[in-house]
Design brief:
This protein is an alpha+beta fold. The protein folds into three domains: about 1-30 and about 165-295, no CATH class; about 30-85, no CATH class; about 100-160 and about 305-315, no CATH class. Helix content is about 20%, strand content about 25%. It has six helices and 16 strands. The chain has helices at about 5-20, 80-85, 90-105, 165-180, 190-195, 280-285, and strands at about 20, 25, 30-35, 60, 70-75, 115, 125-130, 130-135, 145, 150-160, 210-215, 225-230, 240-245, 250-255, 290-295, 305-310. The strands form four sheets. Strands 1, 2, 11, 12, 13, 14 and 15 form a seven-stranded antiparallel beta sheet that branches. Strands 3-5-4 form a three-stranded mixed beta sheet, with no helix packed on it. A hairpin with a 2-residue loop joins strand 7 and strand 8 (about 130-135). Helix 3 packs across helix 4 and helix 4 (about 165-180) packs across helix 5. The protein is globular. Residues about 320-329 have low confidence and may be disordered.
Length: about 325
């Protein structure tokens, strides 16, 4: 077994001292896992209503279906809330994550999402089919830049319109679904916040999302979910967060609790990123890259561009068609 590098070991020690981890979920295609008891009457933790006031006929995804064909469902969400979130904050979350889901080859309901030049006309296109990416551009409208010396292909993808704080609410909803029943009382205001259609309403002062990107080929059909809660006696860190590992990305999402996070009110959040295993070949692909994402914006974002870089080993020129242009053809 390879020893952890000092930074990863220090991060692991930090989280071991400050947090306790619930049983992690390791999800892959073919599995079906349902959170919550199937006993009737069912109770919706999002609107607070129970059968027969509300119905539970639809399978509610604990993780949005756009995040992969992973069978993680929830008995905690009624049909009305499922529809409400699907048309609202989960749609914004889907638009925000779409470029990375395309690049990481994450198959949703309709396969890996295709991204093309906005406007509806003929233009560049990035799609994944038959086990490979198909990149298209048209003469006079170049989009892809090839750096043969660095062996890199560079381009930009466009995000569909989204409201940042709505996408943030979609991420927090996943965490609220993962919470054990005994924790729900600590998050009553958080449930109210994600259900509030008025995204202009502020909630907490700081709300960073920590993103770790792992370069290189990574599994695109597996998801890891880990819920962590602050240990008893610790008062210097946020109360709860969850970690989701999907493809090349690991997102660390805080689940704010106004009651349990009073001890850190007014203090700047300062956490080391959650330790990740990194690429299977660190020499070839380098160490994981970490950045902090701010999704607290309240206005619709349009035309946002996401830079992307692919590495390649070499360029192969297509062979000329021997029949092309021949007489009598």
């Amino acid at each position: 077994m390879t020893d952890l590098d000092p930074a990863t070991a220090a991060a692991a020690d930090f989280y071991d001292q400050h947090y306790a981890c619930c049983k992690p979920l390791f999800l892959e295609p073919g599995m079906r896992c349902t959170l919550g008891s199937p006993d009737r009457p069912k109770h919706c933790r999002f609107c607070g209503l129970s059968e027969p006031e509300v119905q539970f006929k639809t399978d509610a995804h604990a993780l949005p279906a756009a995040f992969g064909r992973i069978g993680l469902f929830s008995n905690y969400e009624c049909d009305a809330c499922n529809s409400y979130f699907g048309k609202g904050i989960e749609n914004d979350l889907g638009n925000w994550t779409k470029p990375m889901r395309t690049l990481m080859r994450i198959k949703g309901r309709s396969g890996v999402p295709t991204i093309k030049e906005p406007g509806g006309g003929k233009g560049w296109r990035v799609e994944y089919s038959t086990g490979a990416f198909q990149l298209s551009e048209y003469e006079g409208d170049p989009h892809f830049t090839i750096d043969e010396q660095a062996k890199q292909l560079r381009f930009e993808l466009h995000r569909d319109p989204y409201i940042p704080v709505a996408a943030l609410k979609g991420l927090v909803k996943i965490g609220l679904t993962l919470l054990p029943e005994v924790e729900l009382a600590h998050f009553s205001e958080t449930f109210d916040w994600i259900r509030n259609p008025d995204h202009s309403q502020s909630f907490v002062a700081e709300f960073p999302i920590i993103r770790t990107f792992i370069s290189g080929p990574m599994p695109n059909d597996k998801v890891t979910l880990m819920l962590l809660r602050r240990r008893s006696g610790v008062t210097t860190v946020p109360y709860a967060f969850y970690v989701i590992g999907l493809g090349n990305e690991v997102l660390q999402v805080f689940i704010p609790s106004l009651s349990q996070d009073q001890c850190i009110n007014g203090q700047p959040l300062s956490l080391v990123p959650f330790p990740t295993p990194g690429s299977f070949d660190a020499k070839a692909y380098g160490r994981p890259r970490v950045n902090t994402i701010d999704l607290t914006g309240r206005e619709t974002v349009r035309g946002e561009k996401v830079p992307a870089t692919f590495g390649f080993d070499g360029i192969v020129q297509p062979e000329a068609d021997s029949n092309a242009g021949g007489a009598g053809q």
